[in-house]
Amino acid sequence: MNHLISPSILTANFANLQKDIDMLNQSQADWIHVDVMDGVFVPNISFGFAVIKAIKQFAQKPLDVHLMIVDPDRYLEEFKNAGADGITVHYEACTHLNRTINKIKELGCRAGVALNPHTPVALLDDIIADLDLVLIMSVNPGFGAQKFLSNTYKKIADLKKLCALRNPELYIEIDGGVDAGNAAQLINTGANVLVAGNAVFSANDPSAAVATLKSIV
Fold first, then answer.
1. Is the model's pTM score more than 0.90?
2. Which residues are catalytic?
3. CA-CA distance, 37 to 34, in Å (whole number)?
4. What is the tens place of the pLDDT at every residue in 65-81?
C-alpha cells in the first residue's frame, strides 16, 4: 500500500480556511484531517458541526475526522451528516468500543480507533479484525506543533504484528509531530497514513511540503 498524506487543518489559517482547503484540493494530499476537540477529553476546543459542513462544501478530498471527545456515540450520525468520510474515536473514550465501531460502519464511514501515547496496542487484540484504521498518537492529544514521541516506532511495529494475519489491509495512521525528518522511518516501520499539520501549514510552500511527504519512500 502506498502511503497517504492527511494534512491536519488544526494548524491551518482559520481566518481564511477556504483558501487552505482549496490549496489542499490542488495538492497531493489524499485526505483532509479534521481534529474535533471538546475541552473535556483534551484541554482544547476546535471544530463543531457547522465548521465541518463548511469544510465539506469546498473539500474535494475525503474528510478524515478524528474525535477527541467524550462519549462520541452521541454524535456519530451528526458527524456523518456534517461530511465525515472516516470517523476515528479514541479507545480511552469508548465504553462499548465494538458497538461504536459497528455504528460507524453502519453509517457508511471508515471506522478507526485512536490510541493515546500511554495506551498499549495489545488492547486492540479483540477488535483488530473489525477496524479499518488505527491512529497512533505520537504526541499527547490536544494541541498542534508538539514534539514527536519516539516510542511511536515500537507501537507501529507492535500494531503491524497484531494486524499481520487478521487485518493486513489496516490503515496505520500516525498523528503528531510528523515531518520530513521522521516520515521515512515511520513508513518503513509500517505506517501508511501520515497526519501532518505544522509541517505543512507552517511551510513557505504548503503544497510543496505535502508533495515532499508524499514522495518519501
1. yes
2. 35, 175
3. 10
4. 999 999 999 999 999 99
